Amino acid sequence: DATSGDHGPASHSEINGTLYNEKELIFPPELVRRNDLPLKLLGFGGIRWYRPLKLEALLDLKSLYPNAKLVVGNTEVGIEINFKNAQYPILISVTHVHELNAMNIKENGLEIGSSVRLSKLQQVLIKVIAERDIHETSSCRAINEQLKWFAGKQVKNVASVGGNICTASPISDLNPLWMATRTEFRIVDSKGNIRT
């Protein structure tokens, strides 16, 4: 209210009328509650977009289309397409593959799926740091500290652990930490063979 000097947020949620506490808009709750379905979309110029729900379906698609680009947040691929004129006729979104979104706290460390968003990783790291002894969490603290400086909140909400690794950027914020903490990666090929 301009007359009382109260200058709170000007936007209101159309769902329940409460004020937004942050400048960042919330993700529509209706979309969060929707049932996940596998998708196959056709775009301009013959571009195809797939969204499998299971690892087996993803491996089948990758076997059919070995040159397909896998995407989660599309942050790097989007830049390649829009600014570097890269052409990817087949894109496979792995955002809904359950096995790749796993995040498990184990006695000897963390198990992190490649599609886990960086913001989710940060939340789990904070929880582990709070619950475990300091000598058990040095790696978690180092990764969490680096994530504080990694991009903005919007990017961390869509960017994934696997995407960050596979981009292999020479200025990657996280890849040196994965190496320094002796992180073990399990990689599966399109035939289902697993390597460590």
Automatic annotation (TrEMBL):
Residues 42-196 form the FAD-binding PCMH-type domain. SUPFAM superfamilies: FAD-binding/transporter-associated domain-like. Gene3D superfamilies: 3.30.465.10, Uridine Diphospho-n-acetylenolpyruvylglucosamine Reductase, domain 2 (3.30.43.10). It comes from the Eukaryota. Its cofactor is FAD. InterPro entries: Ald_Oxase/xanthine_DH-like (IPR016208), FAD-bd_PCMH (IPR016166), FAD-bd_PCMH-like_sf (IPR036318), FAD-bd_PCMH_sub1 (IPR016167), FAD-bd_PCMH_sub2 (IPR016169), Mopterin_DH_FAD-bd (IPR002346). It holds the Pfam family FAD_binding_5. GO terms for molecular function: FAD binding; iron ion binding; oxidoreductase activity. PANTHER family: XANTHINE DEHYDROGENASE. This is Xanthine dehydrogenase. It comes from Herminium lanceum. The gene is Xdh.
